[in-house]
Amino acid sequence: MKKEFKIFIDFDGTITNADVGENIFLKFGDEKEVKRIIEDLLTEKISSKQCWLSLCESVHQINKDELDNFIDEFKIDPGFKDFIGLCKKNEVHHFILSDGFDYYIERILKRENLNDLKYYSNKLQIINNKLIPSFPHHDIDFPSSANCKRNHIINNSADEEYTVFIGDGNSDKSTIHFCDFIFAKDDLLKYCEKERISYFPFKNFNDVKRIMIKLLSKKRLKKRHQADLKRREAYIQE
C-alpha cells in the first residue's frame, strides 16, 4: 500500500528569502512602532491577529505601485520549484499555510509561475490608500497565527496519512505539534530544541528535497506519537 503524505509549507522566510510581511511594515510604517508591535507578538503580549491589525494601522498611507515594486524585490528559495516538482512527480499533495497576506503571496507566486499552488492565508486590500486586513481562517484558540494553520492541517489530512510541515517562525509553533515530520530553521528550530520536538534542520529546499526523497523511499515509517494523538483528538472534535 502506497504511503500517503500531506505537506504543509510556511511562506514568509521559508519559501521566500525574507519575511515579506514584516518588511512591508518596516518599509512603509514607523520602524520604531513596528518593532515594538512585533516584539509584543513574540513575547505573547498580543495575538497574531492584533499584531497585524496594529501593523496595518501603523501605515497611515500606502501607494499601491510603491508597494508592488517593493514586493517584487523579494526572491524565492532557488530550490523551491524543484521541490514542488518532486511533490508533483510523486503525487504528494502540498499546501502553503501562511500567516501573511494573499496580496503579496499571489503576486510572488504568479511571477514565479507557481500560481497553481493551493494556499491559505490572511487577506489584505488597499482601500483609499489604507491597508485593510481580514482574517477568514482565524481561530481564537490558536492566537500565535491569525490564519489557523492547525485547522488547515486537520481539514486537509486523514488519520492514515503522514503529515509534513516546513517552516521557520513564530506562527508555526502551535502547528507543528500536529505533524509527524517537521523541517525547521531559525526561530522554529530553536523552539523544537527547547520543547524537545524531533525535527530535520534545513537551510534551503535542496535540504528538504534530499530528506523527502529518503522518506518517500522508506518501506516503513513511524508517525510521531504525540502528533498522532493530537490529530486523532482533533479529528474526533471535528
Summary, kept brief:
This protein has ten helices and seven strands. The chain has helices at 20-28, 31-42, 48-58, 64-71, 80-89, 102-111, 149-155, 186-195, 205-217, 225-237; strands at residues 5-9, 93-101, 119-127, 130-134, 162-167, 181-184, 200-201.
Question: Would you write up a description of this structure?
Answer:
This protein has helices at 20-28, 31-42, 48-58, 64-71, 80-89, 102-111, 149-155, 186-195, 205-217, 225-237; strands spanning 5-9, 93-101, 119-127, 130-134, 162-167, 181-184, 200-201. The chain is of the alpha/beta class. Strands 4-3-2-1-5-6-7 form a 7-stranded mixed beta sheet, with helices on both faces. Helix 2 packs antiparallel against helix 3 (48-58). The protein is globular. The two termini are 27 Å apart.
Look up the CATH topology of the domain at 5-17 and 78-121 and 137-237. Rossmann fold
Mean pLDDT: 95
SSE-based structural type: alpha/beta
Strand order across the biggest sheet?
Answer: 4-3-2-1-5-6-7
Overall strand count: 7
Helix content: 40-55%
Tell me the span between the first and last alpha carbons.
27 Å
Q: For this structure, what is the CATH homologous superfamily of the domain at 5-17 and 78-121 and 137-237?
A: HAD superfamily/HAD-like
Shape: globular
Multimerization status? single chain
Name its key features.
238 residues, alpha/beta, Rossmann fold, 7-stranded mixed beta sheet, 43% helix, globular
Fold blueprint:
Layout: E1 5-9, H1 20-28, H2 31-42, H3 48-58, H4 64-71, H5 80-89, E2 93-101, H6 102-111, E3 119-127, E4 130-134, H7 149-155, E5 162-167, E6 181-184, H8 186-195, E7 200-201, H9 205-217, H10 225-237
Parallel strand pairs: 1-2, 1-5, 2-3, 5-6, 6-7
Antiparallel strand pairs: 3-4
Helix pairs in contact: 1-2, 2-3, 5-9
